[in-house]
Amino acid sequence: MRRLLLIALFCGVDAQAIFDAVAQNSMAALKQALKADPGALNTPGPGGQSPLMHAVLTGKPLAVKYLLRKGADVTVPEKDGYTPMHGAGFQGRAEIAQLLIDHGIDPWNVHKDGNNPMQRACWGAEQRHAQTVQVFVEAGATAEQLSKCEARSEWTKAVVAKALKALADKGTGKAEL
To answer: pTM for the whole thing?
Structure first.
């Protein structure tokens, strides 16, 4: 990754332009940055993050949507191996998690630490984390997956309890709310 960044710098390409465009959450700015440097789509930047991961972590849904449409590689992890779906869970980015799911990204990918994106959302203390857990519930969370949710907020506890009750009432292994 460091090599790609050095190559970009030596070639005179402004590798920062794509990240500035992500920060603006502007499709026009992203279009301009990618026109100037088509290779920037998956070029690592701050913290070893791809532009897509940067958009996910900083909560920029327009940028996520545009980068996905342009073919951003959704499997490119950041420096610790977390993919964009894990980032959406950890940061409590419900709208972005839904965009990724709609794009066909597996919401149940397990990181080498043994946790999936919904578990990361469960750890969050804000209401946005509970909203993100709800996205995963609607994506078909199983009772087993929900039982691993270490909810830290009353909002998330309520989402999980409702989903588990729905599963028990239906007698199935998948939540359908």
So the answer is: 0.87
pLDDT value at position 170? 85
Q: Is 3 exposed, middle or buried (0-12, 13-18, 19+ CB in 10 A)?
A: exposed
Using CA atoms, how far residue 98 sits from 4, 103, 151, in Å, is: 30, 8, 20
Q: What is the pLDDT of residue 174?
A: 54
Q: Same domain, yes or no, for 58 and 98?
A: no
- The reply to whether 37 falls in a domain is yes
At 19-28, the pLDDT tens digits run 999 999 999 9
Residue 123 belongs to what domain range? 94-177
Instruction: List the one residue out of 22, 9, 3, 87 whose CA is nearest residue 61.
Output: 22
Per the structure, the count of domains in the chain is 2
Local structure of 142: helix, strand or coil: strand
Q: Is the model more confident about 7 or about 16?
A: 16
Virtual torsion, Cα 14, 11, 70, 138, nearest 10 deg: -70
In a domain? residue 87 = no
**62 and 12 within one domain:** yes
* Of the candidates 166, 108, 174, the residue with the CA atom closest to the CA atom of residue 143: 174
